[in-house]
Amino acid sequence: MAAAVPACIFCQIARSSTATTLLHTDDKVVAFQDINPSAFRHYLVIPVEHIATVKDLQRRPQDYSLVRHMLSVGQTLLSRDAPDSTHYRFGFHQPPFNSVNHLHLHCLALPFVPRWKRVKYSSLGPLGGFIEAHRLLDKLKP
């Protein structure tokens, strides 16, 4: 496991060093509410291990398994907490569009609030932007 980065707020959250309420915790990931939500429900799922961005993931079983687990946790939380939502969105911002350099899956139960925030969760093609979790899994599949 990679060492925690002391200045990384998500490393601090993952190790319960903050007052952040955790919605899920296990040996691989933790989940919590986004402090600046962009949707009806907006959760983040992060690995306990410090991994900076999606660019640090490789096509190998352990990275594929981690992202699959992150997605599964996010789906479970939203199906529990927003069962009436008809649209969900799961994905990652890619550098240079990520706000925190600690891998984090955005789990969104739509609608976006306010509606203009949907722009933040759009793919910009070769420039990066937002990558849907299932597309990242396709890239990582060994």
TrEMBL record:
Entries under InterPro entries matching the protein:
Histidine_triad_HIT, HIT-like, HIT-like_sf
Named from the GO MF annotations, one term is: nucleotide binding
Q: Which SUPFAM superfamilies match?
A: HIT-like
Gene3D superfamilies per record? HIT-like
Q: Return the motif ranges for Histidine triad motif.
A: 102-106
What UniProt keywords are attached to this protein's entry?
A: Hydrolase, Nucleotide-binding
Active-site residue list: 106
Domain (HIT) ranges: 9-121
Recorded superkingdom: Eukaryota
Q: What is this protein called?
A: HIT domain-containing protein
Q: Which organism is it from?
A: Ambrosia artemisiifolia (Common ragweed)
